[in-house]
Amino acid sequence: RIPLLIDTDPGVDDALALLMAFNAPDHHVVGLTVTAGNVGLAHTTANALKLVEVCGLDVPVFAGADAPLLHPARDAGYVHGRDGFGDTGYVPATRALEGEHAALAILRLSHAYAGRLLLVALGPLTNIALALKLDPTLPQRVGRFVVMGGAVTAHGNVTPAAEFNIAFDPEAAHLVFAAFPRFDLVDWEATVAHGFSHDEAEQWLACGSPRATFYEEISRQTRLWSVDRRGDLWHAADALAMACALQPDHVQEWAERPVAVELAGRLTRGVTVVDWLRQESEVDNARIALRYEPAAFHAMMRDALAAA
Ligand code: BDR
Ligand code: CA
């Protein structure tokens, strides 16, 4: 089975992606490295531990960055709840964090599974940037790297042109995009293009499994926010990224292009700039997922929620 390491900031859509990973028959989750992002690190780590416990699994959870590399954090508690999991007041997990820092865990696991590791980033890229600073040879050992982030034609979700994960820590994203010769990018605009109906999702959530019941509770506030702000369709960015990571054969259209991160713009800091016409560079570092088979995406989410 493919060893899968997930860097994440749970986060309601992170949680759905993690359920998909836990249910993937051909993959084995070797760790969750957690960063601040949607909310602060104390909450994102507690949420990761809780989800692992709800699923009855023994996946190690590593705490990492508690802030972006350079600038103060601007979180997304207004989407995910102040605790990142819908403010349900759940009983904290009894299981504990590992003692190792997330950046060190990324490096150790990259050695343990050298050449085979599937690394999936569902949050700001701070932990991976820290790992790269400690050991710039990291990309040589990662078999495949999938990033949820960016807005490839600059239709942003936190600023007019920038997407949350990149805007949260643009310097980290810059370091990571410059260091990995090749990665798969699943962006916010693909997420919007793959919105799915709340009505359909509510049927999955009502299936009665412990995972679905827990997820129904922690996602309730976000789903209400989403209906109010974004209309009838639910946009689950990290779930789409995980679908592309786990079952890339269902990607119906990729675009390979140079992608860089804007660090300086007054209006455009944190924007992922795609060189669509290869004006500045001929080096395609990113393979951008543009279209995914909707039925396969929906089935993966439904089955992950229903899993025992
Ligand atoms: C990304 O930002 C976060 O709020 C989500 O968890 C997702 O990773 C979408 O822009
Ligand atoms: Ca996330």
Give the low-confidence spans.
Answer: none
Q: Specify the structural class.
A: alpha/beta
| Alpha carbon gyration radius | 18 Å
Number of β-strand runs:
12
Instruction: List the ions, cofactors and other small molecules found in this model.
Output: beta-D-ribofuranose, calcium ion
Strand order in space, largest sheet: 3-2-1-4-5-6-12-9
What is the terminal-to-terminal distance?
A: 20 Å
Strand content: 15-25%
Largest beta sheet, briefly? 8 strands, mixed
- SSE run: EHEHEHHEHHEHHEHEHHEHEEEEH
| Total number of helices | 13
Oligomeric state? single chain
Residue-averaged pLDDT: 97
Word description of this protein:
One of its GO terms (molecular function) is hydrolase activity, hydrolyzing N-glycosyl compounds. This protein has 308 residues and is of the alpha/beta class. It is built from 13 helices and twelve strands. The strands form three sheets. It has an eight-stranded mixed sheet with strand order 3-2-1-4-5-6-12-9, sandwiched between helices. It has a two-stranded antiparallel ribbon with strand order 7-8. Strand 1, helix 1 and strand 2 form a beta-alpha-beta unit. Helix 1 runs antiparallel to helix 11, helix 1 packs across helix 13 and helix 10 packs antiparallel against helix 11. Bound molecules: beta-D-ribofuranose and calcium ion. The site of calcium ion (CA) has 8 residues, from loops.
